[in-house]
Design brief:
The protein is an alpha+beta fold and 418 residues long. It contains 10 helices and 14 strands. The chain has 2 domains: 54-203, Beta-Lactamase (2-Layer Sandwich); 272-417, 2-Layer Sandwich (Alpha-Beta Plaits). Helix 7 (303-310) packs across helix 8 (312-327). The mean pLDDT is 89.
């Protein structure tokens, strides 16, 4: 039972480790997926913002620029070389042209231009406006565009916290050549890019909420799974313990039943069924290895007189005492059994007939000199034979019974062979 219990406990531990490892892998994968999801979401937002700026710029360029009133906040673009940059309306209102680059610049300088504090910067490796000069990160992105990349992004830690920088490539289009042809740009050339900076704090807050949910879900699933596993395991262990206890009980009961089936209830010595099994074993040993064995059959003389004169209770007591007297004369290897009534039988392995006769004589003398408790002195008649190779059990028993019969007809209290 202990080995079975240990195996079950080992399996439970291994299953618990497997469940823990599987849930741990699932947790790691889901956490990685959440981080990647929110990073991709931020990237897509930056990409979308960039595309919207490009659409607005194309609208502006398609119109050849737009005119807006000159104010304290909007002064003419000093970097725009256009003879029609400044105009005056018929009522005296001064207007200045806002081209795509200048418009982008003005939008980027608007305070709190978005609710999410998204910032952007138009830049180029060859800017007309010095304010559009790239920083180190933007320079690397622009160089990547020169090598064929269309976008560039990375998480950068700035003074306000971590931000996702997204930068999209600006290619020279037909409307752009009005201002940039003099710089040597041709249609399709990389003119620069627009960098969009998105604070990651909102994304990280959302990711933190998702991570907490994932932790709770995996933790709850882990606890419930282990609870169910160990509850089932404990129930199984209980059943195993009960089953093993039942098995032990059945084994003990079988042994008792087997012992009862092979034991004479009156004398406590083996019965005829036991002797038949031993006889078969001795015959096989003789046939296979040539091992000699002898049979001794005993019969208490005038036992009917004991039952008639003293009663069956005294007769039973005499049989019990007789069996103990005989046992005291036997060797450990001798096989003693009650044959039936007042008849007993002995199988003596590794014993030839002359030695069996000596054993039988010792038994006869011991019985004759023993004073039975309630029946005085008694005697025993004994038949002795040695097994003959090839002889059947029936023939063997008939021969020993004949020897016993001669001992009784010749006057009893003696040993005969045949």
């Amino acid at each position: 039972m202990k080995s079975t219990t240990h195996r079950i406990l080992l399996y439970l531990l291994l299953l618990s480790m497997m469940v823990t490892a599987a849930i741990g892998l699932s947790l790691g994968y889901n956490l990685h997926t959440i981080d990647r999801h929110y990073q991709e979401l931020a990237q897509e937002m930056g990409r979308t913002f960039f595309k919207e700026l490009v659409i607005v710029r194309r609208w502006n360029a398609g119109l050849g620029g737009i005119y807006a009133p000159v104010t304290d906040r909007l002064q003419p673009n000093p970097h725009l070389s256009d003879p029609r940059r400044d105009l005056t309306t018929t009522d005296g209102q001064q207007l200045t042209k806002v081209n795509p680059a200048f418009m982008t610049r003005l939008l980027s300088e608007m305070p709190d231009h978005t609710a999410d504090n998204i910032q952007f910067h138009i830049t180029s490796l060859n800017p007309i406006n010095p304010n559009n000069a790239p920083d180190a990160w933007e320079c690397r992105a622009l160089e990547a565009f020169e090598r064929g990349a269309t976008e560039h992004f990375a998480v950068v830690r700035e003074s306000g916290g971590p931000v996702l920088r997204y930068m999209g490539r600006l290619a020279t289009e037909q409307a752009c050549l009005t201002c940039h042809a003099k710089q040597g740009y041709q249609l399709g050339d990389v003119r620069g890019g627009i960098r969009v900076s998105l604070p990651l704090a909102p994304f990280e807050a959302a990711a933190a909420d998702s991570r907490r949910q994932i932790y709770w879900m995996h933790g709850a699933f882990w606890l419930i799974t282990l609870a169910l596993l160990w509850t089932g395991g404990i129930l199984l262990l209980r059943n195993v313990v009960q089953l093993e206890g039942l098995n032990r009980y059945m084994k003990d009961l079988n042994k008792q039943l087997e012992g009862a089936a092979l034991t004479d209830s009156l004398t406590g010595i083996p019965n005829r069924l036991y002797f038949d099994q031993q006889l078969e074993s001795n015959m096989r040993s003789n046939q296979r290895y040539g091992i000699a064995f002898s049979i001794i059959m005993l019969d208490l003389d005038h036992f009917k007189q004991v039952n008639d004169g003293y009663g069956h209770a005294v007769g039973d007591s005499v049989l019990r005492e007789f069996s103990q007297v005989v046992k005291q004369q036997l060797r450990l290897t001798d096989q003693f059994a009650r044959w039936g009534g007042e008849e007993f039988i002995i199988a003596a392995p590794h014993t030839q007939v002359n030695h069996a006769l000596s054993l039988a004589e010792r038994i006869r003398t011991a019985v004759a000199t023993y004073a039975f408790t309630t029946a005085g002195s008694r005697t025993v008649s004994i038949g002795v034979i040695e097994y003959r190779a090839g002889e059947t059990a029936m023939a063997l028993l008939e021969r020993v019974d004949s020897a016993l019969y001669r001992a009784k007809t010749n006057g009893r209290n003696q040993v005969e062979t045949g």
